[in-house]
Amino acid sequence: MNKRYTANNRQNLQIVIGLPAKRQTTITFISGYGLKREGYFITENEDLQKALEKDDRFNRSFRLSEVDNMSIAEYNANADIKKKKEQSEKIFKTIQEAKDWLNANYNVPYNKLGNKTLCEKEFKNVGLELHFENT
Question: Model confidence over 101-119: pLDDT tens digits?
Fold first, then answer.
């Protein structure tokens, strides 16, 4: 994941950041251009990203401004949509697994779950979509 960090109200910024195993590195935020004049630093290194986001200066001297070339607002909106979709879908291998899950989690009696169509109806009643791995 590619992350862009932006210096707050500065064209240049240089900081020393601590990394795992008691190592340190110097980060230089280079001058921006055009409308984005604030200095920036881009990295894919996850250890460096974690260190930057745990640093006391995070959100004071610099902030996270983009993830994979998307603004933070757009990235968070996409993540929320994906999370809601994952929460509204349930994927099973067999119809019997779906029946067992509905019975265990929502106390739907097995006699209401006779076939796939009835199972799909009961899933909709609890606000979920039923899907199978091989379809």
Answer: 888 888 989 998 888 899 8
